[in-house]
Amino acid sequence: MILFELKCSHGHRFEGWFRNGAAYEAQAAAQAITCPVCGDSGIDKAPMAPRIAKGRPEPAAAAIPGSGGDGAGDKAQQAEILTQLRELRRKVEESADYVGERFAEEARRIHYGETDARAIYGETSSDEAERLRDEGVPVARIPWVPTGN
Ligand SMILES: [Zn+2]
Question: Ligand 1 mean position to 25 CA, how many Å?
Fold first, then answer.
């Protein structure tokens, strides 16, 4: 399919989809294309404005310092990061109370002094984590790596 910007002899501009350029030519020659505004069949192609696809920018991937280089180095680095994340998980599990889905609620109670200050961990949605941050509650998102092997 091809999109042409068209104009009638009265200068109305409109768009039309055609199977291909030849299909447009045939329909235009047969006066089968009419202006949606005035019904005029004296249609011509309007100069096309460049169409720029406005895609959403992709979220940028987090840059890992020192990444790049040969594949073997990357693999070693990934393993190192994984080890660090497992260690982090172990420390969190040791030192913090697991509050599960009550995480946001508990984080607020601690922040507002309604319960004993302590380290907690649990699950929350990214929207909720965002709201907590807006309220000034210090929360961190930890990539929760599986501890297996
Ligand atoms: Zn017209």
Answer: 18
Each domain of the chain, given as residue ranges in start order, spans: 2-45, 87-149
* Ligand 1 centroid – CA 116 distance (Å): 74
pTM score over 0.70: no
Inform me whether the pLDDT recorded for 21 exceeds 50. yes
Contact 34, 40 (CB under 8 A): yes
Buried/exposed code over 93-108 (b: 16+ C-beta within 10 A; e: otherwise): eeeeeebeeebbebbe
Tokens standing for residue 36: 């949606």
- In the predicted structure, residue 38 carries a pLDDT above the cut 90: yes
Percent of the chain with pLDDT over 90: 28
Distance CA 31, CA 57 (A): 42
Quote the tokens at residue 17: 């989809």
